[in-house]
Amino acid sequence: MNPDYLIAILASTAGAATPLVLASTGELVAERSGVLNLGLEGIMLVGAVAGFAVTLHGGSPLLGLLAAMAAGMAMALVFAVLVLTLQTNQVATGLALTLFGLGLSAFLGRDLVGQTVAPLPHLSIPLLSNLPFVGPLLFRFDALVYVSLALVALVGWVLARTRLGLAIRAVGEAPHSAHAIGMPVLKLRYATVLFGGALAGLGGAYLSLALTPMWVEGMTAGRGWIALAQVVFATWKPRGLLLGAYLFGGVTVLQFHGQGLGLAIPSEFLSMLPYLATIVVLVVICRNPQTILLNKPMSLGQNFKAD
Amino acid sequence: MSRLEARPAPSRAMMLASPLIAAAAMLVSGSLLFLFLGQEPLHAFYVYFVKPATSLYGVGELLLKATPLILCGVGLALGFRANVHNIGADGQLTMGAVAAGCVALYFDGVEAAWVLPLMLLAGALGGMAWAAVPALLRTRFNTSEILVSLMLVYVAYLFLGYLVHGPLRDPAGFNFPQSKMFGAAATLPLLVEGLRVNAAFPLSLLAAGGAWFFCRHTFAGYRMQVSGMAPAAALYAGFSEPRNVWLAFMASGALAGLAGVGEVAGPLGQLQGSVSPGYGFAAIIVAYVGRLHPLGVVLAALLMSLLYIGGESAQIELQLPSAITGLFQGLLLFYLLAADLFIHYRVKPRTRPAAPAALSTETVPHES
């Protein structure tokens, strides 16, 4: 195979994986503190439209990304108030957030359809990016690809090695015990949910500012849900997220390169691959109940109310 | 300041009142949104929420749109009661439509009375087949039915897209991605001449009545509800969880499939690239707003249908964006969930029994 073509495929894999890395990293932190946010898809959509709107109306891409994070946090705040303060059911509230996000993003983006912005600039690190093969493969992405990788490492380190990480895990495993020894359970959960919202918003904006620099209604096409599945796939450990996201990035990219690779399959069937792959992977991970039982935060999905 | 105090028992009054509170809160926020969009709120309110129901044709449209919402909503509510979260009803609806569409196109030109019942059967089976996947994976491999049923929605959309772009495309259709129009024998009869509401509507009421009977008067229905409300008790009583999961998915899959038949054999009259503007998702809201009760679902579906129709009439008459419909739907569910707080808690004004306590800390500041 033509090496340039192979490089193009591998490079676009990183592009397709990055929104998943961002959104699932944020969700992982929230789930480690015991909160299951099924509203990821809605948050990503609102992040996508906010980032796109700000960039289109003269903001710099950086401002757009910040706006997307702020929008994601605002959405997550709605979820947090309902679930943490008002004690609503997490599954129902997450579904409501997704449906609300679908409507809100379509509403906010009604005048943005069909417009385009310049995609996020690709870095080209002097010397390194000119290396043959390795250069275009490793050193010519936009900054967010590197940021997402750094974030996974950072989150892994914080969760495993710091006091804050210990507190988050304690709150996710045994909120009542954590509360009894004076940990601010709800405050920590607010923080993790907002962090997750910011990253999901950023992941959404990566779609509308980098991957396909435009706004289309419902453009996340289930990526928020795939990101949720990624967290299960990673068995709630950050290092698994990268593997999962890049695997799915690769599967997603197949549909664009299917014809080029000589696959005589209708495009619709290639487009089904990421969804089918998600199901297959979930089955493989979940079929052993031990894996899930050992790794799943004990209080995931359960509300906590201090007496 | 006031604080929340747990009620000794869930308030039955609040349980019935909270959907009304939610609807009222949504109407108020809707009016505020109209104001923000530069509309005269009362007029916009009238056009959106009242006008659709003032003409006979409008009422017909209301019932037409409520039909798939009732069918999907009743099925989802059954599952939610048993803690089975099927959120892929839109995919099951789509596959029901595909199955019924295949029957209609295969027997194209056959003008016999058995075509329609065969389509209904095929549609129900199509929806059930699609629902069987998450049920099987959950019961066999412990896989989250939420994620699996949702992934299958996208697969179903793509499959329908493939069919109408490929094998089932109308050869005389100028390359539009849609099938031939179905014949008269493959079209649901209209209830009233001149209105578009068809025989699927009484069918949906029948389904709601059947579900009510199932929950209220059968042992299987009782088992399902116990599993939902008290999983530990259900386990102790030896109620089988896999059986509930299967029952919930088969019932909701069949009903969603029928909803799909109602669309393609009703107002659409053919297979199109998309057969549902998200009825399966709106039905999640319908199920919760209807308090997971079959009769509540019927009322909630009518309200949700009004949101759809109102959205269309606001788009035409007021040039408001149609996306408002989705916004209102989401808001409605938010408000309902928030109002539900008062089922289990009541607001207690912070009285001041704290006074003597405050005094004591003042007098003995160094005790600790």
UniProtKB/TrEMBL annotation, chain A:
Keywords: Cell membrane, Membrane, Transmembrane, Transmembrane helix
Membrane topology recorded in Swiss-Prot or TrEMBL: Multi-pass membrane protein
GO cellular component terms attached to this protein's record: plasma membrane
TM helices/strands, residue ranges: 6-23, 35-56, 62-84, 91-109, 137-160, 190-209, 269-286
Keyword Signal: no
Subcellular location: Cell membrane
Organism domain of life: Bacteria
Pfam families, sorted: BPD_transp_2
UniProt GO MF annotations: transmembrane transporter activity
PANTHER family, sorted: ABC TRANSPORTER PERMEASE PROTEIN, SUGAR ABC TRANSPORTER INTEGRAL MEMBRANE PROTEIN-RELATED
Name of protein: ABC transporter permease
Taxonomic lineage from the root: Bacteria, Pseudomonadati, Pseudomonadota, Betaproteobacteria, Burkholderiales
From TrEMBL, chain B:
Membrane topology summary: Multi-pass membrane protein
Transmembrane region(s): 12-36, 56-80, 87-107, 113-137, 146-164, 197-215, 278-311, 323-343
GO cellular component, one term: plasma membrane
Subcellular location: Cell membrane
Taxonomic superkingdom: Bacteria
Keyword vocabulary terms for this entry: Cell membrane, Membrane, Transmembrane, Transmembrane helix
Residues in the signal sequence: none
One MF term in the entry's GO annotations: transmembrane transporter activity
Pfam families membership: BPD_transp_2
Name of the protein in question: ABC transporter permease
Source species of the chain: Massilia forsythiae
